[in-house]
Amino acid sequence: MLLSKWRAGVLHRQVRYLQTVLNWPFQSEIKISEKMKSLEESWSKKLMEHFENQKTIPCRLNEKKYILSMFPYPSGRLHIGHMRVYTISDATARYYRLNGYRVIHPIGWDSFGLPAENAARNNGVDPREWTIQNIETMRRQLKATQLRNVLVAKCPIFRQIQFDWNREISTCEPEFYRWTQWIFCRLFENGLVRRTQAEVNWDPIDQTVLAAEQIDNEGRSWRSGAVAEKKKLRKSTTNYTNCSQWMIETPKYAKRLQEGLRKMSEQWGEVADIQANWIGKCDVFRFMLPVIGTENEFIDLRIRDIFEISNAEFLVLKRAHPMADKTQEQFPYKLPFEVLNGVTGRRIPAIVVDDDYLPDTEFFLNTRIGNFKTDKELAEKFRVQEPKLKRVLTKNDIQEMAAVSSSQNFKKSIIDFCLQFGGYGGYETSRTLTDWVVSRQRAWGTPIPMIQTENGRRAAAKLEKLPVLGTDRGQKVDEKRFETAGTFDSDTLDTFFDSSWLVWERETTNYKKNWKKNLKIYNFKQTTRCRLQTTKKTEIGRGSIFESLQKARKNNIWTTKYKLQTTKILYYLRYLDPKNASKLADDVFLKEMPVDVYVGGIEHAAVHMFFARFVSYFLNDIGVIPTAEPFTDLIPQGIVRGRTFIEKSSGKYLSPDDVEYSDDQKSIRLKSNPTVEVESIYEKMSKSKNNGVDLVELLTTDGIDLTRLRILEAAAPRAPINWGETDLKGAKVYCTFRNYKKFDLKTKRKILDEGRSRTRDVRSVGKTLRQSATQHTVERRRERAYISCCRRYCPPGPVAEWRVRLPINQKVTGSIAPGVKTFFFFFANKFKKSKTGNCKIFHNFFQKLLDRIATMTSDVIKSRVASSEFKKDPNIDSQIKETYNFFVRNVGMCLEVLHLHNTALMRLQGFTNALKKIDPVYLANSEEGIRAVRSLIIMLQVFCPHVAAEMWTALEPDSGLILTQNWPEIDADADVEFLLMIDGVSGGRPSVGRQKIENLRLEDLWKRAELNEHSDILKMIKADGIVLKDHRFSARKGFHVTLACNTEGDKDENRKKIGKILDRIQAEKRKSDKKKKAKKAAK
């Protein structure tokens, strides 16, 4: 009797009321979306406490997953960009924890950099003091535990991001940057660091060196807007006019890094292409030829034929070469110095020619070896004698002679010079990649641990004596501590240092004993001279920036700015063992490498990722870490852009409160002066642009779970988000799914036909249809094809304008398809904008989803009956089982393999729709039904943990917290996707029983593909003469088996041919389907 009452829900309500916030099952029409705040307040502390406690419990799988997100600069306040990257990484980490992995998900602070110095200059504070204060503020924001305490935590969403705070690091602490210095010293020991007088990009306003990536397409500084000058720096008593720089010889690893990208191309996608373009083609040999009579200068020679160097008698340089005299107007002319051919030991001249000299002749870095046939006139004019006997050297001889610094045939003076310089190259490398200039003339950065000894030589500080502190820069070496006499280098390892504006005084401290406790390293003073120069810089800089932006907008040209920081090449290693004072990390922890998933901005693909890989390869070569590649998989994250209003005439950024729409709703104007035209675009959020989002208001309005859903659904992780415009996107998808059946068949066909004819990629509809996986999703395939056409037919731009300009009940105008017009008319009349840029229909999308899942859970709880009163139906069980396997596989595939969190959310919505069609009594009492409901809630917690925790406790009060549950797995007899990838192009993804293919070897998989699932496309490819090579496969049990291969010849041309083959296959399939329908209709 008691059991029957329990199953009927009589006692259920009382017990659940004690453990949950809401009274389950619902006795009235309660919407869980209206109770979000109370759920979050109740469940947040419980979930975080359990997360911290379970770290000591062994994981189900004896495997780790290292999830690394880009660490924040401590600016003092977390913004929506932080929200996006950490929500993505947190959802990924939660998924792997549910799958039984031991997850490493650390957090730290990128605390060196120019903004701290700007704050010191503008506010008269110590940069370290400013940085430490901001770290404390942001740490409180990340670790906040009270939702309502906005004063303590202005971004409470971050409190549900499950970081490993025991691994926290800060790059400005000596305990951290001593290992940055340690890596630099090891590079120096292995001949990869040299000091040379290099031509650098100089900002004349900020008086600092710029990296190439910090200059826009017009040659202007990203910060000041001034035109960057090419010059050599040498230090004098008053300013920097020509000083040598520390450089790291990254080209030595270029070819290996390029080859490594080929292996990673499938996981990295376009990131591999970006970095490959950054490295360039690696088909030349590099020789560094010292300039005789100068210190630390050389000419970087790149040649295709390595044997040319053995008979090189003169060099030909173009006028754009750094060594050329920029004031010289008559060409050709000989430079007033000679260079040393390190292979032959001969001194050879360098001749400068005009840029139009022999235009068909190949130059690399504006340099080549002179040829006595093609350059006969040059040789005769400058009396260069052709040797009578040609030197015959093997490739090994040349490379050995170039690599060895001293040769017995060289004079003693040259031998000493070679020893100081450190080799001549002789290795195969990139055509364009140059050495990495790491010297920065500023204070707030990692001090370069180099000592100039009394005899003029430079030596690295002893490893066991590190770190070299900021107070040591440019000072005499403490011989007792470092056991060496000399002077420390004055530069730092960072982006740049604005030395003209700052005056630093060394504080007298006993740094030998107290360097770990000495937090106040610098004593900063700001003078009147500094303020005057700052004002001058600001006036010149702002004008240049606005002018540059206006021109960029006019020509639709945008360039990405990068920021180099040497501290970033180390942090992913130090996270593994952050408290180790004797090693970079213990060998046991270094075995946790590589990083399994890196979540970071797509703008880091070329620079940061390249240097991180370079250092990882080097550390692997010297036996420090076990793997060369530091990152296995990537989730490139696009930026979040806000709607920006700009005065067209001046380029001035305006506040949204200062603008209004004209009477005809066609243009935007200034409220105070309606004649002033205003332009509206989406740009990266910034205070100066007045386009930011108030996170406090956003979280107050939406709550934590809805904000997480909004961020994850707005776009695929690698795509940028136009905040506000993406509200429409989410609502559009929801409305389209809900209203698809309202359109008649004729309208549907018309939309599809117009979509096919107007889209640039004719294969988009066919591709969507091909990617379907099961027979029971025919209707879903049509819906996806329809949505694909809608999205391509109505691009985001016009949609965004309609979103703002259409008042209630105004008709939608324009030449658009009838079905699309009907849809947008429906949407526009429902739209209502709020202060935070939300839209009502957007909230309805997520709120309805959560409300439907909660209502279904409540109905299931109500519907539990005694086992004798329930009868199973094999057909319904089979339907539920098929639905369960399909959606569990697809959600997991989206999160783990494809990294499409937004698509995973749409799959959960589809799962909910499918379960809602089944009687809740059957769901509650059948094994298949209750398994499906449980799995839906377990998967939901990745996106909104608080609501999922409430639902789970209501459904299963005796099963513990939802965090203790396992991610659902598909059945042993279920289907998995059998993919074929040819040069990165999908050749189809049919579904096959997992038992048939998951245990097959590569040879057997290819035979099956050729005979069964992929026979059509492989036959056509063979008939078109395309040769396949590099056969391989990858698999994830329960998800997919993927066959991959490359093609011989031109990849772009082969991809076009494969695309045409796919179109033919799709056309033939449509014809076959028509014939089948006709036969069926005839019967």
TrEMBL record:
<dbReference type="GO" id="GO:0006429">
    <property type="term" value="P:leucyl-tRNA aminoacylation"/>
</dbReference>
<dbReference type="InterPro" id="IPR013155">
    <property type="entry name" value="M/V/L/I-tRNA-synth_anticd-bd"/>
</dbReference>
<dbReference type="InterPro" id="IPR001412">
    <property type="entry name" value="aa-tRNA-synth_I_CS"/>
</dbReference>
<dbReference type="GO" id="GO:0004823">
    <property type="term" value="F:leucine-tRNA ligase activity"/>
</dbReference>
<dbReference type="GO" id="GO:0005524">
    <property type="term" value="F:ATP binding"/>
</dbReference>
<feature type="compositionally biased region" description="Basic residues">
    <location>
        <begin position="1072"/>
        <end position="1083"/>
    </location>
</feature>
<protein>
    <recommendedName>
        <fullName>leucine--tRNA ligase</fullName>
        <ecNumber>6.1.1.4</ecNumber>
    </recommendedName>
</protein>
<dbReference type="InterPro" id="IPR002300">
    <property type="entry name" value="aa-tRNA-synth_Ia"/>
</dbReference>
<comment type="similarity">
    <text>Belongs to the class-I aminoacyl-tRNA synthetase family.</text>
</comment>
<dbReference type="InterPro" id="IPR002302">
    <property type="entry name" value="Leu-tRNA-ligase"/>
</dbReference>
<feature type="domain" description="Aminoacyl-tRNA synthetase class Ia">
    <location>
        <begin position="42"/>
        <end position="520"/>
    </location>
</feature>
<keyword id="KW-0436">Ligase</keyword>
<keyword id="KW-0547">Nucleotide-binding</keyword>
<keyword id="KW-0067">ATP-binding</keyword>
<dbReference type="InterPro" id="IPR014729">
    <property type="entry name" value="Rossmann-like_a/b/a_fold"/>
</dbReference>
<dbReference type="Pfam" id="PF00133">
    <property type="entry name" value="tRNA-synt_1"/>
</dbReference>
<keyword id="KW-0648">Protein biosynthesis</keyword>
<dbReference type="InterPro" id="IPR009080">
    <property type="entry name" value="tRNAsynth_Ia_anticodon-bd"/>
</dbReference>
<keyword id="KW-0030">Aminoacyl-tRNA synthetase</keyword>
<dbReference type="Pfam" id="PF08264">
    <property type="entry name" value="Anticodon_1"/>
</dbReference>
<feature type="domain" description="Methionyl/Valyl/Leucyl/Isoleucyl-tRNA synthetase anticodon-binding">
    <location>
        <begin position="931"/>
        <end position="974"/>
    </location>
</feature>
<dbReference type="GO" id="GO:0032543">
    <property type="term" value="P:mitochondrial translation"/>
</dbReference>
<dbReference type="GO" id="GO:0005739">
    <property type="term" value="C:mitochondrion"/>
</dbReference>
<feature type="region of interest" description="Disordered">
    <location>
        <begin position="1063"/>
        <end position="1083"/>
    </location>
</feature>
